[in-house]
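Morning F.,

Quick status update on the modeling queue. The single chain you submitted on Monday has been processed. Sequence for confirmation:
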Amino acid sequence: MAEIGVIGAGSWGTALASLLSDNGHEVMLWAYLPEEKETLLATRRHPNLKGAKLPEALGVTNELLEACHDKDLVVMAVPSTATRQTARNLKDILPEGQKVITVSKGIEEGSLLTQCEIIEEELPQVQAGILSGPSHAEEVVLKLPAAVVAGAKERSLAVFVQELFMNDYFRVYTSPDVLGIEIGGSLKNVIALAAGMSDGLQFGDNARAALMTRGIKEISALACAMGGKPETLSGLTGIGDLIVTCSSTHSRNHTAGYYIGQGMSADEAMKKVNMVVEGVHSAKAAKALGIKYDMDMPIVTAVNEILFEGKSASDGVRYLMGRNKKKEVEGMTW
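Structure tokens below.
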């Protein structure tokens, strides 16, 4: 049995805390708001995880020190935009060599750093890793089968995370390609926004398939230019995560995109979703990374124009469909 602190009582943090508690570990879940803590303790239910009751053994607190002191593992499950400040708040709490993983997905606007890179910058004393893959909280908390990847620079950390999380409905693989995992997990949210817009416009399965296929090409090209491995992007944290995020009604990014395709502004769509839409926050960073690495990223460009430059979703489609003729795969010859 391990002692684990989970920082963030959103849907994903709560679902993973529940899974870890069911696995027999001693788990303390940190909630940012006092009312979140009181609701979870009083009802043993999360408002966004319908039909699931939390284990009685799962602890809930508002105190970071209580959640993180003397833990075998700390799981960062806050929104990607809150990772840096949360890490700063943990600087004097976490000891040298503390094992920390993030389960958030996103590139920080401005710095263009991934979640692990932010943690390493703010908490140089810790071992940082990531858990990522196609895994909606709404299904994991109901113990429906899922497969994810534990990534870390140190093999020992990836294997440790694998052993803590894995059970008969949650399969965990390991990988040393942290960067590839993070780029795949972050940029798929931007492509999911585009897929949602297409569905909102009632463009059908063909258009969604085209966006997903060309989208993974954009993601893979950028990730490899940054040092990620192509095998990662063809696996669970690349094409796997993209498929589920572009296709599921559980996906807040697809849902927000759908509302935009129906005519809402980005702000109106995010308010209607009423949860953090990570793709909106990652879109600018994705575009900036494309420019930095001199990559052609038309879908990312179109999403940015729709979100931030007043273009309509139908304008974005016309832009993508009207681009110059080209080969599907450059370098292939007759």
